[in-house]
Design goal:
Cofactor (chain A): FAD
Radius of gyration of chain B: 20 Å
Largest sheet of chain A: 5 strands, parallel
Structural class of chain B: alpha+beta
Number of strands of chain A: 19
Helix content of chain A: 25-40%
Largest sheet of chain B: 5 strands, mixed
Number of strands of chain B: 7
Strand order of the largest sheet of chain A: 5-2-1-9-17
Pfam families (chain A): FAD_binding_2, Succ_DH_flav_C
Number of domains of chain A: 3
Shape of chain A: globular
CATH architecture of the largest domain in chain B: Orthogonal Bundle
Oligomer: heterodimer
Protein name (chain A): Fumarate reductase/succinate dehydrogenase flavoprotein subunit
CATH superfamily of the largest domain in chain B: Alpha-helical ferredoxin
CATH topology of the largest domain in chain A: FAD/NAD(P)-binding domain
Strand content of chain B: 5-15%
Keywords (chain A): Flavoprotein, Oxidoreductase
Shape of chain B: elongated
């Protein structure tokens, strides 16, 4: 049944996508009108796909669990979106973006997919500007760029620290336009709880209306998931409270393989945990590393205020260890370096689990430039700082405000304290070149799939991938499947497969409510998060992972006998929703540990303590692990490993070097 | 710190609701307002009572989902923050805090503190877009836009669609929300072709949703967590009036 072939087109790398597009089967307009596509999720990937498919003429149903598609967590992306425009004339090109992405991903991504991503990146910026997305501009009226980690060019487009918001609102507007024209039927406050597979093909979903509790059956000739990542398996992450793996996990259990589940991105610059009450962590955009310098005191437990520590007593450890990239090394490298300093006893703040991100030097530099513009060629330091603060405020104002809100400290006066936190998951549902899962007719796009980022994602590439998939890739590739479905009539939803799927969903919901145990869903979620962070987090080892697998199994057993879910299933019941999501995380967590244990190498975000160089860098084992681990669900705790070999024909595989 | 909460409880849209008193203790000043509600809900679940339903998601002030009316002000006592970014250090030990849902005819209560804001989506669907299909855009830098215009459009586009403006307004008017979207596009060259049609369609939809009219009290601007300016309303009125007085060719 399963279809495990990457289906990469033949031909030279730079021609694959062009040739594919001109040769892929088409569906004529009359046929498109009778073909129905279900899109689950309304973030950058889901909303852009739903809007584009509807523009092309398909009948689309789009689902999101929030009260509006505009709330999807893409909205929170801060820093920017990459595109190989070379507007800065700094030598950027499609090839360089491709190369940086493969290298940044520690040589664990598929060449053909990444090259396609780099090719369409420029179209995304054009599309968004045409939609009226107000990206940042220079005084000449042209678009501005900034730098992000893992690259030496400036290719990141942005809208203050709210790039995700502006891009999502662009996609949301396009989606609502189709809703207004009746070409997309939008289902808000609906959660997909199962996929319906008939004769080996995805044919619909079971969704729960979260307000009434009613279970609904929806038919589709194809089903597309753009349901985001699973970072919330750690409980504390930069994800939204509602971000979950449920839709992806349900399709996994129905035959879609799960790719590289252990590849998790720990983002280096987040606001540190302040106490047990904490419900989520907040990111401070990577773009701040453009203008901030990261340091810790050279002396352990230095009691002085950061401002009082003189320059020569500070350890700018990223600049020291990686002089070529400095503060702009990729995220996995920066995170591990912060952990190394804190573990060695140089951490700052009350918890000692934090490092400084200091803007003083660049504030002064900006101020000097401003003063010069105003004709003051010999400004004093105070003038520089005053003018520089204005520049910093314009660039990052909302981030600085957020920091001040959360910590009660003024980041314009004193350096930020930051620490790594779970942010993104490179792993996800395995898909082929067409973005189709191992279940025919079932597609997965955006963060929810595993593709493009390898073992570590570069900053500002998530927005790029979400919109590439939704606007420019899936709408083409889905035609290859749907062109063969033009004579398939809509399947009535009283088909036994729909009935069975609905009954299964109903019995699971009833089971939660009937346990009537003693502990809340959050209690279990926090415990799971703790296991995952300690044993499958920034650094992993065989012993810890083996223990974690047993601990998760035990916790899952306890959950299913002692969780307390109040209320009923025929009403708006957020606790019941949470129970379903945590139940799935309790299964996913185990698979992540199994995957991390089996991958006996370090690569990107996956750092096995047993496999490191003398300098403490990740040590890959290309001879044995240059493959995508695609796991097939075979029943509770039983997963079969399938390997997709990665072949690098256009890039010389090397040890990553940011020194 | 120890606090008394008076929280609006309402089973569903059909039933009537009332304020119910709760006590919470050992609240840390570093908690966010919603984390304080997490503590309260954990208490309620442990006691076998129904937890309080409230909307929230990103908890970093950008998704626009959280929506509590705290001590008579949308998103509480601090300026320019959403409920999720309001921290307990803004309160003091022994305080009594009243928490209600958004109140507006166009935002019916669903349960407890959660309301239905789908009217906003319908207003956007009526015209809050630029009609451009995927795939035909020209190179982005072929269209230079003055930085001042782009920045002003961005400031209008920063609206998070939370609905605090409606909740704050004595008329439950949605003018600030609608005008922010109208302004974003009318400030940009890409928005010109549909400028006058857009404003009329969006205003018509806004009226049909049951939002009230604007009487220039400025409460919306004062309570907006994102500082969306009242100027947007003036801009929308200007466009609307132009559209009503002149034909599209003359405007």
């Amino acid at each position: 049944m399963s279809n495990f072939n990457s289906n990469i087109p033949e031909g030279e790398l730079t021609q694959k996508w062009t040739k594919y597009r001109s040769s892929v089967a088409l569906v004529n307009p009359a046929n498109k009108r009778s073909i129905e596509v279900i899109v689950v999720g309304s973030g950058l990937a889901g909303a852009s796909a739903a809007a584009t498919l509807a523009e092309m003429g398909y009948k689309v149903k789009c689902f999101c669990f929030q009260d509006s598609p505009r709330r999807a967590h893409s909205i929170a992306a801060q820093g920017g979106i990459n595109a190989a425009k070379n507007y800065q004339n700094d030598g950027d090109s499609v090839y360089r973006l491709f190369y940086d992405t493969i290298k940044g991903g520690d040589y664990r991504a598929r060449e053909a997919n990444v090259h396609r991503l780099a090719e369409v990146s420029a179209n995304i910026i054009d599309q968004c500007v045409a939609q009226g997305v107000p990206l940042a501009r220079e005084y000449g009226g042209l678009l501005d760029n900034r730098s992000f980690g893992g690259t030496q060019v400036q290719r990141t487009f942005y809208a203050a620290g709210q790039t995700g918001q502006q891009l999502l609102l662009g996609a949301y507007s396009a989606l609502e336009r189709q809703v207004g024209m009746g070409k997309v039927e939008m289902f808000t406050r609906h959660e997909m709880l199962d996929v319906v597979v008939i004769d080996g093909k995805a044919r619909g979903i079971i969704a729960r209306n979260l307000l009434t509790g009613e279970l609904e059956r929806h038919f589709g000739h194809a089903v597309v998931l753009g349901t985001g990542g699973y970072g919330n398996v750690f409980f504390l992450s930069t994800n939204a409270m509602g971000s979950n793996v449920t839709a992806a996990w349900k399709i996994h259990k129905k035959g879609a393989f799960f790719g590289n589940p252990c590849y998790t991105q720990i983002h280096p610059t987040c606001i540190p945990v302040s106490g047990d009450h904490q419900s989520k962590l907040t990111l401070m955009s990577e773009s701040l590393r453009n203008d901030g310098r990261i340091w810790v005191p050279k002396k352990k437990d230095d009691p002085r205020k950061p401002q009082d520590i003189p320059e020569d007593e500070r350890d700018y450890y990223l600049e020291r260890r990686y002089p070529a990239f400095g503060n702009l090394v990729p995220r996995d490298v920066a995170s591990r370096a912060a952990k190394e300093r804190c573990d060695a006893g140089y951490g700052v703040g009350a918890s000692k689990l934090a490092v400084y991100l200091d803007f003083t030097a660049n504030t002064e530099r900006y101020g000097r430039i401003e003063a010069n513009k105003q004709g003051n060629h010999h400004p004093d330091k105070e003038t520089c700082m005053r003018l520089g603060r204005e520049v910093i405020k314009e660039k990052y104002g909302n981030l600085f405000d957020m920091y001040a809100q959360i910590t009660g400290e003024n980041p314009y006066e004193t350096p930020m304290r930051i620490y790594p936190a779970v942010h993104y998951t490179m792993g996800g549902i395995w898909v082929d070149y067409d973005l189709m899962t191992t279940v025919p007719g079932l597609y997965c796009i955006g963060e929810a799939n595993f593709s493009d980022h390898g073992a570590n994602r570069l900053g500002a590439s998530a927005l790029m991938q979400g919109l590439a998939d939704g606007y420019f890739v899936l709408p083409y590739t889905i035609g290859s499947y749907l062109s063969k479905e033009i004579s398939t009539k809509a399947i009535p939803t009283d088909h036994p497969a729909f009935v069975e799927a609905e009954n299964h969903v109903k019995s699971t919901l009833d089971r939660f409510l009937n346990i009537k145990g003693t502990k809340s869903v959050d209690h279990f979620h926090k415990k799971l998060g703790h296991i995952m962070w300690e044993k499958c987090g920034m650094a992993r080892n065989a012993k810890g992972l083996t223990e974690a697998i047993e601990e998760i199994k035990a916790l899952r057993k306890e959950f299913w006998s002692d969780v307390r879910v109040p209320g009923s299933s025929d009403e708006f019941n957020p606790e019941l929703e949470k129970a379903g999501r945590v139940a799935d995380f309790l299964e996913l967590g185990e698979l992540m540990c199994i995957d991390a244990l089996h991958r006996e190498e370090s690569c990107g975000g996956h750092f096995r303590e047993e496999f490191q160089t003398e300098e403490g860098e990740a040590k890959r084992d290309d001879a044995n692990f240059s493959y995508v681990a695609a796991w097939e669900y075979k029943g509770e705790s039983v997963y079969e490993l399938h390997k997709e070999e990665l072949n690098y024909e256009n890039i010389k595989v090397a040890q990553r070097n940011y020194k | 710190m120890n606090l008394t909460l008076k929280v609006w409880r309402q089973k569903n849209s059909k039933s009537t609701g009332n304020l119910v008193d709760y006590k919470v203790s050992d609240i840390s000043p570093d908690m966010s307002f919603l984390e304080m509600f997490d503590v309260l809900n954990e208490q309620l679940i442990n006691k076998g009572e129904e937890p309080i339903v409230f909307d929230h998601d990103c908890r970093e002030g950008i998704c626009g989902m959280c929506s509590m009316y705290i001590n008579g002000r949308p998103h509480g006592p601090k300026d320019l923050v959403t409920t999720c970014q309001l921290h307990m250090r803004s309160f003091k030990d022994g305080d009594t805090i009243v928490v209600e849902p958004w109140r507006a005819k166009a935002f019916p209560v669903i349960k407890d503190l959660a309301v239905d804001r789908s009217a906003f989506d319908r207003v956007i669907a009526a015209g809050g877009f630029i009609s451009v299909n995927t795939g035909n855009a020209q190179d982005a830098n072929n269209l230079p836009i003055a930085k001042s215009k782009a920045d002003a459009a961005f400031e209008a586009a920063a609206c998070i669609g939370c609905g605090a403006c409606v909740a704050a307004c004595k008329n439950a008017s949605a003018m600030l929300f609608v005008s922010a979207k109208v302004s974003q596009f009318s400030l940009l060259p890409q928005g010109q072709p549909e400028r006058y049609k857009r404003v009329q369609n969006m205003v018509a939809q806004m009226d049909s949703e049951g939002f009230g009219n604007c009487t220039n009290t400025g409460a919306c601007e004062a309570e907006c967590p994102k500082g969306i300016s009242l100027e947007n309303i003036a801009r929308m009125n200007r466009d609307y009036l132009t559209a009503k007085l002149f034909s599209e060719e003359e405007a």
